[in-house]
Write a structure and sequence with these properties.
By secondary structure, this protein is an alpha/beta fold. It is built from 34 helices and 22 strands. β21, α27 and β22 form a beta-alpha-beta unit. Allosteric enzyme that catalyzes the rate-limiting step in glycogen catabolism, the phosphorolytic cleavage of glycogen to produce glucose-1-phosphate, and plays a central role in maintaining cellular and organismal glucose homeostasis.
Length: 818
Amino acid sequence: MTELTAPKSSISSKDFANEIRELLKYEQGVTPEQASAADVYVAASSAVRRHLMDSWMKTQQDMVNGNTKAVGYLSAEFLMGRQLRNSLLNAGLTEQFNEAVKELGFDAQKVIDAEYEPGLGNGGLGRLAACFIDSLASLGVPAFGYGIQYKYGIFRQEFDEEGKQVERPDYWLANEDPWGHIDYGRSQRVNFGGEVVEEDGKRVWKPAWAVRAIPVDYMVPGYASGRVNTLRLWQAKSYDEFDLLEFNKSEYMKAVEPQVQAENISKILYPEDSTQVGKELRLEQQYFFTSASLHDAIRVFYPGQDKPDLTTFADKITFQLNDTHPVIGIPELMRILIDEYGYDWDTAWTVTTKTFNYTCHTLLPEALEVWPASLIGKLLPRHLEIIEKINDQFLAELADLTDDQDKIERMRIVTDEDDAKVRMAYLATYAGSHVNGVAELHSQLLKDVTLRDFSDLFDAKFTNVTNGVTPRRFMKLANPGLSELITEGLGTDKWLSDLELLKGLEPLAQDDEFVKKFAKVKYDNKVKFAQFAKDEYGFDLDASTMFDTMIKRLHEYKRQALKILEVIATYADIKSGKVNADDLTPRTFIFGAKSAPGYYMAKLTIQLINNVAKVINNDPDVKGKLKIAFPYNYNIRVAQLLIPATELDEQISQAGKEASGTSNMKFALNGALTVGTLDGANVEIRARVGAENFFLFGMTVDEVEALYAAGYDPSKYYEADPRLKAAIDMVANGTFSDGDAETYEPLVTDWLKKDWFMTLADFTAYHDIQSQIDTLYADQLEWNRKAILNVANSGYFSSDRSIEDYLERIWMTGPLDK
């Protein structure tokens, strides 16, 4: 990887202050004396955009005119985080900003805090997409991120008095958004419904209704590359926004009905889809942004051409399907090529298969999207015809490849039943040039289990690209103290663009003075997070305790239940006198998690964690020894404070269920030790940081599968482990529900009768590893040596390296010429 020097703009802080003054006056309509921190934030952001504009335009021009194939990253989520600090860093304007706002009489951090975090993602999938487009720009690779500008994001999480999750709209666009540029002149028409008819020997789609897709462009500046790429998000608007006749008849709701129907498409991320209406909206969303994006790419790469030569389309841009959400783009490109540009089937198929690649992010069959064919036929009748023809073509190819009729039936894209289903992952695997998993273990299990039939016949399509995270946001911005110490230790800041340089920290792990400096940085980060938690949530956290953190989307396979049951069991040991509280390592357990609105068991687990916290945090017998903090609405802002402060990272999913994980990478890079199973990227992290610097427990994938096959009875583990039994009994008897034994009955019943993700089977092993953790933590010098070794050996987990793997293994392209 080429080492790059940190960017530094030549503009002076005085000139930058004058730019902000001008924008305050002419854009915000206020003087510096009248301005609020929010005004200064908007003005400063606008000033940064101006400084990036030339590079942005040059990047677009070079992308279209050059010979470098671009990347189109299609994703339902882009969890970007706040933009100002990141853009200042990449534009080389951080120092000028800090001094300019001070000159204007403002505190820089208050200006930064005036930015509302974009509500454009849910968790790891969206954050990965954000890291990837950052790395693409930093490597100088021309790229578009394509998605939806959700008006209300996923939801803003709150907790009610009973500890239950409550979903509120996330009004992230309620105030000015200086980063998004709306371009009405480049909107696209997206059609839905209707019927397909025969006209002059051709199949012609006659849609019933349409929406207008309006692009909102966000600059994605690269670090030290001089390149600025584009995140293009689509807003849905109606072509018939207002019916004056209905309004004049006092039919006010009818007057705006088309507008409401259209705008619902870009209202919220992942609408609840347990109903038919919810399913329709999800499919509408997916088609909306993929259709608009494909048409946009044709416009971008063939400017002003009525009849472009689209046989070269795959030479202009390669599209990565980030999970199954954008897979409807495959039949859409076929439709565009055949219906709109007149290509024959075989030519269209050749172009399409060269254009798309598919990333699978799951091993859970239920997470691989399957749509009722009837629903696709209702919303996208022409696409269903194309999908059915693709399926017929695929079955014919399979018949030439294998005599195994059962295998052929298993591999069908469209199922053969009365209520036929369309398997989107199968469509993507057949039509895509490449299929990749996101960690070595995940990619192998993808081939061996989830998509085994496909890998048997099309092994050359399958590859692995282990995920990564951007060190600019999650080290330089999130952890400035550690970043400065690393630069001091290495004697260079070039590690920010070549993270493998962190390997040079290894000898410093044996330098006691450096280790003490590292420990001081970690402690300062804990104090900083504790103050934030006090100001934001009212928590009283003790920075002298171990910060033991589990931040994950709330899902049963991630096993937050395992963590809280161990906390309860420890609490029970203290209350019963089996353990002296003074003999324990004082710990603050920090959870961060949202549950899908319709996921009952996950929401019940959130309620349990909150109510265990209520009991433990108010019990004087464990004061100073056990504390639980569950900040609501966990997001990138919280992550950038919590991850640097964390000492023990919990990665305790059942082996074989986590695709990769990226929080595990962020924690290791920021000097936390990990307790985890051999799951996802944990396997690679442990191999690189050293088994002796990772707390391993639990069953392997093979052991999990063997236990499933033998017949898993969770009640045996409940009866065999007195600590586990005591913990579950406390949940069952109402200790954490004001004596109400019914509140958590569904959880208790599931643990004892089903426990599909084997929380109980791994409980004893999880407890046993805690004594090793306590022993090591008591030796702070040795603990921090191991933490430094985690940092030193985590350079592989840069998203820059991930993108370089994509470029080499899948996309077959590279950076623009400088």
